[in-house]
Write a structure and sequence with these properties.
This protein has 163 residues and is mainly beta. Helices cover 10% and strands 47% of the residues. The protein has 1 helix and 11 strands. The longest helix is centred in the last third of the chain and has 17 residues. It is globular. The protein starts with a strand and ends with a strand.
């Protein structure tokens, strides 16, 4: 499976983009628009290609599509995550270390805003306004199922981030 994120524009610390997946039709292979994306401009992933693996996220207590940024060390730091005792809706989920600083554990996830997200995550949903995504849970669930089914068939999932 091939996923491409095209970064459209940046406003301050908001990076807006669109997510496409390779699709096949009678006319051959083409890229199909799936949803909109948001990234934090202070901690975005660099442009390039990455592998996506579906692995258990200890914070969310479920399997998530994690972006592997270091191919030599495919185990992301998610196994070191500590779930904070008190979590509000705007806090970054991945806290670790002695002082509780954020860990860099990028993944494709749900959410409707990027503020206080410093873990390199890519939020998916339908754009409602500048820096705001609508229906993130529904969009994420549909995208996750496609990634999970592709992985269960033994296919590798590649993410390409472009401008």
């Amino acid at each position: 499976m091939y996923i491409e994120i095209k970064r459209i524009r940046q406003y301050g610390e908001i990076i807006e983009g669109q997510l496409f997946i390779d699709a096949f039709s009678d006319h051959g292979k083409h890229m199909q628009y799936i949803c909109d994306t948001l990234e934090n401009g202070l901690t975005p992933l660099p442009l390039g290609k990455y592998q996506i693996q579906v692995q258990k996220c200890h914070f969310r207590s479920r399997k998530m599509p994690l972006v592997i940024t270091d191919p030599d060390n495919p185990a992301p730091p998610c196994k070191h995550c500590v779930k904070p005792e008190h979590v509000n809706n705007n806090s970054s989920p991945h806290k670790g270390g002695a002082k509780g600083e954020a860990l860099f554990c990028p993944m494709i996830t749900m959410g409707n805003g990027i503020h206080n997200r410093h873990d390199g995550s890519i939020l998916v949903g339908q754009q409602g306004a500048r820096g705001l995504l609508l229906h993130p849970k529904t969009t994420f669930d549909l995208l996750y199922e496609r990634i999970r089914k592709s992985a269960s068939r033994g296919n590798t999932t590649t993410l390409n981030i472009t401008e």
